[in-house]
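User: Before I run my own analysis I want an independent prediction to cross-check against. Here's the chain; please return only the structure tokens and, at the end, one sentence I can use as a sanity check.
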Amino acid sequence: MSIEIKVPALGESITEATVGQWFKKPGDAVKADEPLVELETEKVTVEVPAPAGGVLADIQVAQGATVGIGSVLGSINEGAAAAAQPAAPQPAAAPPQPKAPEASPPKAAPAAGAATGNGGMPPSPAARRVMEERGLGEADVQGSGRRGQILKEDALAASARAATPAAVPREEEPRAAPRAMATPPVPVTQLRAPSAPNDAAREERVRMTRLRQTIARRLKDAQNTAAMLTTFNDVDMSAIMKLRSEYKDLFEKRHQVRLGFMGFFVKACIQALREVPAVNAEIDGEDIIYKNYYHVGVAVSTDRGLVVPVVREADRMSLAEIEIAIADFGRRARDGKLSIEEMQGGTFSITNGGVFGSLLSTPILNAPQSGILGMHRIEERAVVRNGQIVARPMMSLALSYDHRIVDGRDAVTFLVRVKECLEDPQRFVLDL
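Assistant: Structure tokens:
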């Protein structure tokens, strides 16, 4: 019995997707609910599971094609896996066919990839190109992508490791130096580099994922629509760092999660949003909608792009609950396991460029929100305290906001409140 593989419902307002990597080939045995293919939507990557066990009969839509909800991607011959398995040893048992042994190495290739941690995932197109150019097999490369997929950087690293022994003969070069000394100097005109090769041959063209296209469009739309402005301040992180140092072990033992900085910033922002509601609002036509709830989006960087899962009702959560939610979002975002609903409905966002070493930035609004806070790296700076120049761990803060709703005074007030809460964490306890 043949069963169709269809595009499932992908969430509110999403009507189409781009077909990504197929994990199986026609003729491969599949198990019920086993991932068959990735679909890239505007917000997340979704894995389509097998509707039944059997053998993948055909693939009707190739990678890169755009499909709508309910479209047929391929089909499965239900229950055919059991029949296919006993037939596999027959080619090996038929000695009259000389080509049978030659056909076995390609079948062993997926097993080799799985043995090296590639999980049976085929290499990415860019990695495949590098491997073919450098003469590498899947068994030669350790994949670091999702489910062990080999990425381009993995192939390049493996190629570099393979080329390392070739550098050993260079130790003989000093022996040739005396002969080079007797050679007349070469005119400068002869030392010029040869004409450059064709640049196009050294370029790589990769189609943007649907998520990356959506990120690009939304960021540009935000610039074109909102009257964006950024206001800056800095915060002395001494008190927060001292608090973390004293209680991080007890906190982790009690709550099974690491005590980070983001939970403090979420709490501080909520305190500031309560005082400056315009930063927690949005424009709808000629109306301003003030959100009397606090759904805080926390930006997470993945290999596919930036996603912003939302910590809902963050004002009702403890510091530990916020840290647990953020840690869970981070893990699932990197594995591509976030749902569309988890990235919708935010009222304010926080992005932390400091984890990558950023000193200062002007974050772009996550439309239709009217504010986003940018965190940056912590570094020792000379500041004046009680008339003395001392070193303190300082962080620059940046609030980008929609000037159509938020006035300059509101933006400054917001940042000052965030600064006060972080420099005096007792305000959290006293709700000040």
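Sanity check: The chain has three domains: 1-89, 115-164, 226-430.
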